[in-house]
Amino acid sequence: MQLEAFYHVSRDKWAYAYDPETIHLRVQTKRDDVDQVLVWTGDKYDWDGTFEELAMEKAAHDDWFDYWEIEVHPKFKRLSYLFKLISGDETVYANDKGLQCSPPYPPGDNYEIAYLHEIDVLKVPEWAKKAVFYQIMPERFANGDPSNDPESIADWGEQPQIDNFYGGDLQGVLNHLDYLSELGINAIYFTPLFTSPSYHKYDIVDYKQVDPHFGDTKLLKEVVQACHQRGIRVILDAVFNHCSEQFPPFQDVLTRGEQSPYKDWFYIREFPLETRDGIPTYETFGFYANMPKFNTSNPEVKKYLLDVADYWIREVELDGWRLDVADEIDHHFWRDFRKVVKSANPEAYIVGEVWSDSLTWLQGDQFDSVMNYPFSDKVLEFFNGGMDGYSFANSMGSLLMRYPQQTNEVIFNMLCSHDTPRLLTRLGLDKRKLKLSVVFLFTYIGTPCIFYGDEIGLSGEGDPDCRKPMQWDTSCQDRELFDFYKLMIGLRKKYDALRKGRFRFLQAEPDNPCLIYERVDSRTHFTVWMNNTPEYQVLSHPMETSDWRDALTGEPVKPNNGMMNIGLDPFGYRILYRKIKG
């Protein structure tokens, strides 16, 4: 065995409490190097009386490693354990002391979870596991009240520019809630709503005022209440990394310089505040002089922003926050933010904008979830023909092993957003590929999110083209695509197995872009078959039972002599399911 590839530590994603009665253990070994991993478990104070030897399951793999996983239920909330690795006639034991060829004498030197405290369990909002999000940029969604339009607005169908307005507002959202309910949406993520000079509102002037071009606090309350009556949750965008240059405290610093009482609210390298060779003399978002960066370690700034977070949760009964540029704000701030928000609403859903591995923020003391851009990148690379099934399975395995299970169940999965080209555009305007990627989105673990308009065929390159106004003329909408989204959303909402069930690839081979994978829980078993090629394909896989049905039509689908053979059109898919008899 290549023992240098073995890895386990008794913390983080490798050993954690899933709930007050359950501990998940994971280990890493070299890819295809170990035949079996067993775990010896027991209580350190009664090892002989509680000892169990349990077989771990190979849960995932990537290019280099296999990942083994098991669920353990300690009798007395304490867990002492070690691993037994078997490859052919070679056996190795691993405990906290290291690797050895002879059986160690437990429980001395065992790995250990000293006590499973319920308060330390990483808890995520249960509702988020069932949520299907819809991202709305209010300025570009619908103009419901022309009386609050900016002075100069573009025609609704006009090509977007970097700084033009269309007049979209909260009344427009309120007017179209029937549309969202018909689609099946049960959660909305709004990009910023607060007073700002820009159409996108990521440069905020007043954090406690709804932008007058969108409406007011009373209207926002009405929108949230109307959503709640329909079973739709609402989260807002918190822009706490930076503000607008028009933000009054920053204006005071511009005016009074070093004499301003607000000078420590920002990171100022040098006075006067100005831009030299494209670089401001103060910290900003990127190098945008109009977006000065907050010093969130300053007690006054922290108090101000945490008060904003608390205010909106309580004022409009908000269901959570999406956190802009979350990785550029200090962890102390986010720990205090979580306490404030969860105190106001224990079921609030906190989603950080972090574009890479985010485990640091997902330990139960900061965020519940992050925007899963690595997911969208890999999914779209695969469905664009950029990798085979083997490489794709490796990529997904790596992502699944990044985080604990309860985090994976609410990870914020999207295929595009206001910061990327549109989904249809990213897939070369091929609706068949779009459908394949959406099927994967809705049958994969995590919380799916749709960017407004994707469901009716909006296209667009990067900003500003991806932020074009929603198309409300039904003759210009792709209604067949809308019905497809509606069907997939309905399927996901109907079955727990598609939200919390085990995910595993059944067929993902080198030089073959086709896939078969499964989602399964104690009641329902799904298999998803995908032909990611421009030719007709027949996919085959052994099936032990003959009680399978098409999940979208209900028709029986039977194997032949224990082998299921599924014919698929170019870029076609099929979803099968069976009920598990308990």
UniProtKB/TrEMBL annotation:
SMART domains, A to Z: Aamy
One GO BP annotation of this record: carbohydrate metabolic process
Domain Glycosyl hydrolase family 13 catalytic positions: 135-492
Gene3D superfamilies for the chain: Glycosidases, Golgi alpha-mannosidase II, Immunoglobulins, Oligo-1,6-glucosidase, Domain 2
Keyword set includes Transcription: no
Family: Belongs to the glycosyl hydrolase 13 family.
Protein name: Alpha-glycosidase
Keywords assigned by UniProt, alphabetized: Glycosidase, Hydrolase
One annotated GO molecular function: hydrolase activity, hydrolyzing O-glycosyl compounds
Keyword Methyltransferase: no
